[in-house]
Amino acid sequence: MKRIAVFASGNGSNYEAIEKAFENHRYCRVELLVCDNPKAYVLERAKKYGRQVFVFNPKDYESKEHYEREILQQLQLHQIDLVCLAGYMRIVGSTLLDAYAKRIINIHPSLLPAFKGKNGIKDAFEYGVKVFGVTVHYVSPEVDGGKIIAQRAIEYHGESLEELEGLIHQIEHQLYPETIEKLVKEWENEGLNQC
Ligand code: GAR
What we know:
The chain is an alpha/beta fold. The protein has one domain: Rossmann fold. About 40% of the residues lie in helices and about 25% in strands. It is built from six helices and seven strands, in the order E-H-E-H-E-H-E-H-E-H-E-E-H. It has helices spanning about 15-20, 40-50, 65-75, 95-100, 120-125, 160-190; strands spanning about 1-10, 30-35, 50-55, 80-85, 105-110, 130-140, 150-155. It has a seven-stranded mixed beta sheet with strand order 3-2-1-4-5-6-7, with helices on both faces. Strand 1 (about 1-10), helix 1 and strand 2 form a beta-alpha-beta unit. Helix 1 (about 15-20) packs across helix 6 (about 160-190). The mean pLDDT is about 95. Glycinamide ribonucleotide binds next to helix 1 and strand 5. Glycinamide ribonucleotide binds near residues 11, 109, 120 and 144.
């Protein structure tokens, strides 16, 4: 049984999609939510699932290294195998990347490497592209960089950013749990004892 930690900063719809997908799952389960925003709506969602939560405010720490050391302690305490960033709007530093090499993944609402950053959907829409999409990738020191694991594209020719956002979020909520499941199954099949 692989244990997942989800990191989120805001709304948490992807967090919830992961919770739903792995309720009573054979290979993995969500064990911990890490949140860098004490006011984030994702914390309300986590209550519904009785999820253990580590909330912190980066402003309370001297540096990224200081708060990431605390996060790392939490990950180790909960014996976390895989970290899934889901709208976690911070660059992950070397403290976590070194400890969880190849075991931190992220979802981004564009077809990377296009439209990196915080407003992937809006930036693509305003640019006028017609093929949008979602990417799941390993996390590297570069924002929305790292090797791509999965992508799904969607054509959109409409005029509504809201409608487009809705369509892209639907894809995210399917693609992220599917990709996590695939990774975890590969680990099981390869018999890799990664943690
Ligand atoms: C998602 O669309 C996710 O892909 C995006 O933040 C949103 C979080 O929504 N992440 C990035 O833009 C990463 N650069 P959620 O809080 O409802 O899951």
